[in-house]
Design brief:
single chain; about 250 residues; alpha+beta; Arc Repressor Mutant, subunit A; Beta-Lactamase; 2 domains; six-stranded antiparallel β-sheet; three-stranded antiparallel β-sheet; about 45% helix; elongated; disordered N terminus
Amino acid sequence: MNGTTPSTVKSAMRTIDIIEYVVARPAGVVAQEIAAGLAIPVSSLSYLLATLAERHYLTREGRRYLPGPALERLASPRVAMSLADKVRPLVKSLRLQMNETASFFIRDGWHLEAIVTETAEQSLRYSISVGTRSPLHCLAAGKALLAHMSDAELDAYFAQTPLESFTPSSIVDVEQLRAELAEIRATGIGRTREEYTPGICGLGMAVVIDGEAIGAFALAIPVPRFTAEVEGRTIAKLEQAASLFTAAEMPAL
């Protein structure tokens, strides 16, 4: 291999990341947000944005970049984007901004399923594979989705699902979990601390479209890095991701 291959691959990956990031934000996004969201140096980003705009993969309105007509020509009208396709750039952005493992989960019956995941690039990290099914009651995303169930659904869940203990911190008392779900309804944030995996804390937030929780973004953070400052930044990033996805899914007025 020649010495330019790694740089060439990196540029190609960044180009794809930029396109996916902008497509996920149809209202447009400024260069500074792209740089922060994808951890791309501004000097490199300026060149890539100029090239994409010149080839009409992006258009520019003032300071904001939007999907360009070249992308429409490439799109097949017969193939709709899956939920995983739609959330993938937002999950990647969460991972890049926090350098922690980020995922998007959906509810499959009384279980949680990971449909997109991005693993942190740190030696101490949490890892989960796409397709992994987990219990709802001890993951942050699962709690966020439980909190959006109706009373009847929750009653059915508790009647049909034993609250299994995975660690000494797992919540296995129904009333204790109900009380926590009431708090999550008020704050919007699901929390876990070593309830499923020792040494791992989780924060999750559901995405609600037309009154229905269709899934949840989550970040998993090792206990040694889970400070109050990190918790606050993580919550802000989860809220941003959920808001961006919701805005993209809402029909134009």
